[in-house]
Design brief:
- The chain is of the alpha/beta class.
- The protein has two domains: 13-147 and 204-246, Rossmann fold, CATH 3.40.50; 153-201, Single Sheet (N-terminal domain of TfIIb), CATH 2.20.25.570.
- It has seven helices and eleven strands.
- It has helices at residues 13-18, 22-26, 32-40, 59-64, 76-80, 121-134, 207-217, and strands spanning 47-51, 68-73, 90-92, 105-110, 135-146, 157-164, 168-177, 182-191, 194-203, 219-225, 239-246.
- β6 and β7 (168-177) form a beta hairpin.
- The two termini are 31 Å apart.
- The chain binds S-adenosylmethionine (SAM).
- Residues 11, 14-15, 52-54, 57-58, 72-75, 78, 94-96, 111-114, 117-118 line the site of S-adenosylmethionine (SAM).
Length: 247
């Protein structure tokens, strides 16, 4: 399992905050079928490693498309909710220190902003370095992540309403540290049972920074689209799917 340090936002944090509601809140956060179809375009029967596999929302679709999938996740609570009875292919590990043999995968997938859960440049670089080590020459690292909006002081500290129901309301409070490129947030859930805090933290990176880290790890950018269906990136795109080739 993943060693726990003193960092309150360490690798287990996300799972501890969200495991009990992940499938309910985020089942349609992105198109899992389109993700699997996107990967299949690179060939049949690939060996795919998903970083931050969570409850298997994406991996199960990818496996159903005929690929051999291994997933790693730092959170025991997320892995306990893995959606398959066979949990042998979902492994407890920090995605910055991968317990896999070198050159043993064709594709590494890190989707749904998961790379940004590593909240330092150092951690993200380690993850890309490890991904390169796990991939055969010519293999692909696929990163799906948001494109950060331009800094706007009005947005540096915000509270928004995530959902309101007859017996619950969920507010999202965020603070953005522009210098550190970090957003620290709380989903605050009010119900008759009381208040539940769900803290999280990300370190975002621009596309240029992602490309620089990937190049340093031994990748070149192969293609980039705005989504899993291949839409072109525009100035208004909020998300990018970047495919890096191991060189
Ligand atoms: C946004 S969820 C994505 C889950 C899944 N990939 C999906 O798209 O539904 C991020 C996942 O990454 C995991 N995670 C966060 N930090 C991690 C780390 N350092 N190493 C491995 N997994 C991590 C969390 O526990 C969580 O399951």
């Amino acid at each position: 399992m993943v060693p726990q340090g003193n960092d309150p936002f360490g690798p287990e944090r996300y799972g501890e905050s969200f495991a009990d509601v992940y499938d309910e809140w985020y089942d349609d956060v992105s198109d899992a079928e389109a993700t699997a179809a996107f990967i299949s375009r690179f060939g049949p029967s690939q060996r795919v490693l998903e970083l931050g596999v969570g409850t298997g929302r994406l991996s199960l679709k990818i496996a159903a498309s005929g690929h051999f999938v291994v997933g790693v996740d730092a959170s025991v609570s997320m892995l306990e909710r893995f959606r398959s009875a066979d949990r042998s292919w979902a492994v407890g590990a920090d995605m910055a220190v991968l317990p896999v043999r070198s050159e043993s995968f064709d594709t590494v997938l890190v989707a749904t902003n998961t790379l940004f859960n590593l909240h330092s440049e150092h951690g993200q670089q380690a993850c890309l370095d490890e991904s390169r080590r796990a991939l055969r020459l010519g293999g692909r690292l696929i990163v799906e992540a948001m494109i950060p909006a331009d800094p706007d002081p009005a947005l540096d500290a915000m509270v928004t309403t995530r959902s309101i129901d007859v017996d619950t309301a969920v507010l999202t409070a965020t603070i953005r540290d522009v210098d550190e490129q970090q957003i620290t947030g709380q989903h605050i859930e009010f119900s008759n049972a009381g208040v539940r805090m769900r803290p999280w933290k990300i370190r975002y990176a621009t596309l240029a920074q992602l490309d620089a880290m990937a190049a340093k790890a031994g990748f070149r950018l192969g293609q980039r689209t705005a989504d899993w269906d291949g839409a072109a990136i525009t100035d208004n795109s909020g998300n990018a799917v970047s495919v890096y080739v191991a060189v």
